[in-house]
Specification:
It contains 3 helices and 18 strands. The chain is an alpha+beta fold. It has 4 domains: 88 residues, conserved putative lor/sdh protein from methanococcus maripaludis s2 fold; 94 residues, Efflux pump adaptor protein, beta barrel domain (Elongation Factor Tu (Ef-tu), domain 3, Beta Barrel), CATH 2.40.30.170; 45 residues, no CATH class; 62 residues, Helix Hairpins. The longest helix has 29 residues.
């Protein structure tokens, strides 16, 4: 009988240990008797509702709105320079004056010839009326009067070109000649540019060609101005694609009232090609990717629920959620590592509501 009783005692001991272990595990999982595990504390907030813009980045070069090199149309000696280098000058203001003495003499001679021809024509007409000369003689005098009038107009035009004027309102560059210097037709005298508004040329891939249009807004920055941004607007699009780069060139205008931008500068460009109002934005850290899926945790009935979402545009630190959640959902942005689908959660109080740290006494 002893041989049959001994195994039963051993089996009862093993069973007792198993029950004790199960009770211990249950107590650890459920907490104190009669209580469940407390909810896990997470950070959560409702999505921000804002407008978002779709932008493309490019680089470009600033150009003067208008730029010319001032050159004389007559040869002659420079009598006076009538501006200061770097000076802003209105349209039509004189820049240079050439020695006009020879041209003035030509004008005086042309005026005398024109007056004499007019007198001879008048006399011929009077004689023709009295039948003293042939009509052909009157025609000859009339033709000569027209030739002399044309010569007078030409000489006056040449006289006007001895004073070289600004073709538009702009800024004078560094002059290349001095008073008293003899210049020939076409010699470079000074560069002249309009800078109140600048043009900006930049290129983008042809794949976006259908989304470009005049009136689109741009924002630019240049290294010389640090973080400052300047606004502009596209006003022209090249009519053909560059075969070498497979890109299309856009041209924009950028106001330069402060004069901080200069033609020739390299600029970083951001072009807005689309925007959406009332977009839902969540913090980037709220995304919980799994494979090729994007998901977020939302709090519903006090529990974490893992929802698949579709993302859209981005802002610094935030990402647009196109579908999957609504504006009223509480989205968990921190603490996802401590939970799983269906876990009970509670939100941490906002940082602003937490008591401030004590300051050291002075």
């Amino acid at each position: 009988m002893l041989r049959t009783v001994r195994p039963v005692r051993v089996s009862l001991s093993v069973l007792a240990l198993s029950i004790a272990a199960a009770v211990s595990t249950t107590a650890h999982t459920q907490g104190p008797p009669g209580h469940e595990m407390p909810p896990t504390t997470v950070e959560a907030a409702k999505p921000r509702v804002e407008s978002v813009s779709e932008t493309l980045a490019a680089v470009g070069t600033l150009r003067a709105d208008e730029a010319v090199t001032i050159r004389p149309e007559l040869a002659g000696r420079i009598e006076a320079v009538l501006f200061d280098e770097g000076q802003k000058i209105n349209k039509g203001a004189p820049l240079f004056r050439l020695d006009a003495s020879l041209v003035q003499a030509d004008v005086a001679e042309a005026e005398a010839n024109s007056a004499n021809s007019s007198r001879e024509l008048k006399r011929a007409q009077e004689l023709s009326e009295r039948k003293l000369i042939a009509p052909a003689d009157v025609d000859t005098k009339r033709a000569q009067a027209k030739v002399d009038d044309a010569k007078l107009a030409s000489s006056r035009t040449r006289l006007g070109k001895t004073e070289i004027r600004a073709p538009f309102t702009g800024t004078a560059g560094l002059r290349r000649v001095s008073p008293g210097e003899y210049v020939n037709i076409g010699d470079a005298l000074v560069d002249f540019v309009a800078r109140d508004t600048l043009k900006l040329d930049f290129s983008l891939p042809e794949v976006y060609l259908g989304r470009f249009q005049a009136g689109q807004k741009i924002t630019i920055s240049v290294d010389a101005q640090g973080a400052r941004r300047f606004d502009g607007e596209v006003y022209a699009i090249a009519p053909q694609v560059d075969l070498a780069t497979r890109s299309v060139t856009l041209r924009a205008r950028v106001p330069n009232v402060d004069g901080l931008l200069f033609p020739g500068q390299f600029a970083k460009v951001s072009l807005e090609i689309g925007s959406r109002d009332n977009a839902l934005l969540v913090p980037e850290q709220a995304l919980w990717p799994q494979g090729d899926k994007q998901q977020v945790y939302v709090i519903r009935d006090g529990k974490a629920e893992l929802i698949e979402v579709k993302t859209g545009l981005r802002k610094p630190g935030f990402v647009e959620i196109v579908s999957g959640i609504s504006a009223g959902d509480e989205v968990i942005s921190a603490g996802q590592m401590k939970i799983g689908p269906g876990a009970k959660v509670q939100t941490a109080p906002p940082a602003a509501a937490q008591p401030a740290a004590a300051q050291p006494a002075h």
